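HUMAN: I'm a chemist; might I ask for a sequence paired with its structure tokens?

ASSISTANT:
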Amino acid sequence: MASSLRFFVLLLFIAHHSSTSFSAPIFLPLTHSLSTSRFNTTHHLLKSASARSAARSLHHRLGRHLSHRSSGRRQVSLPLSPGSDYTLSFTLDSHPPQSISLFMDTGSDLVWFPCAPFDCILCEGKPNPNRRNPVVALNRSSTSTVSCKSPACAAAHSSLSSSDLCAAARCPLESIEISDCASFSCPPFYYAYGDGSFIATLYRHSVSIPTSPPALVLRNFTFGCAHSALGEPVGVAGFGRGSLSLPAQLARLSPQLGNRFSYCLVSHSFEPDRVLRPSPLILGRKEKVIGNEEEEFVYTEMLDNPKHPYFYCVGLQGITVGRKHILAAENLRAVDGRGNGGMVVDSGTTFTMLPAGLYGSVVAEFERRLGRVHKRATEVEDKTGLSPCYHFDNDTIASVPTVTLHFVGQGSSVVLPRRNYFYDFTDGSNGGSSGRRSRVGCLMLMSGWDEAEADGGPVATLGNYQQQGFEVVYDLEKRRVGFARRRCSTLWDSLNQH
């Protein structure tokens, strides 16, 4: 990627100046992967994004059933959607230095990347790491393995005990009995998700940014190194709530930087020329107005999920479509003791996924408002995976009703811009031999599952497409998620002038 990960520069500054507090926020660019992806048609891109959103959301739902602590396996959230996720770039300190781009993902809790030799099975049609995102070649002499006695190793293996980990690492019995396993490295761990998996090993290594003199170094950064994967060729910078996530490791160096981060995703509407603008990712900024942005954040409480502790779960009370208020089911407002319920705020999923009943009520209101005057574009629905879609005349797009999300908490309502939930574009598939092109519009929300299904984990996902044009803040100290309307493209310019 052309953009550098500036926050690592300042992270490294902290590593060299750990005795002093670091009060200045860090601003860094996120690159939308659409800008490096090539799709033949808008239909192709929408179909890919909708299919991957459904697969990722299903994985959220079924993750509890794929988790096996006794075998050291854990279900984690990984970005599954090439062409719909946001990436950030940094450099591994090696000879020569190696640059790599990772998906930025609030739904996972580990930083990992593909390492040479790397074999990805069933990765046809996905980003090729050898062309777009080269694999990393580790120098074992300068890379430290993580001990099986380390808490980081236990975290990667779903909190297995030191004895279990040392046994897996083939530590001699006498060493296990005296808990002296520091010289034995953490064994490989297995991650499984919706339609893929990988095996990785934990390492510690130095990271630097050579483009910002003087070169600054973050030492002993813990990450997973994968040599084999199924269906997942690109690594991840996990921003979730786990102890191995990027914010968690940053917080150990500077609590201010690690305990509060936000991003502002530039609205692109799947237009390649618009995704070239960077989306700012902000670490450590205090709650205050920057530049000409004056709107306050709307906050909702983070909900703890005992089965998926790395998720940022919130409660959704309901949705208003136009003047019609639709109340959400109880399991969307809270998370129970088994980890079921709530909505995941996820930067790695494209489209918001709603429970079938709530989604059906939203669609019914759109049908009542639009279906009686506009013809359904069923052929577009088949090609994109989105529904409902309608044929429009140029002067009737204003009839689309407003959509408001009501989160749990007083005054926690968020009015979505129309482009965040209803995408209109020119369709050339309806012209027949005349080649006539027509205007169509599609609802950019998707149906998940039946609310009656039990023991399924989170019941909804707030995708990154619906987060566009908002600064979304994750306040870990006060345990809340906030939303504020922003002009994200100009926010980037404003931040870098301060």
Observations:
- Residues 1-22, 62-83, 209-216, 430-434 have pLDDT under 50 and may be disordered.
- The longest strand covers residues 217-230.
- DSSP finds twelve helices and 27 strands in the chain.
- The longest helix spans residues 42-62.
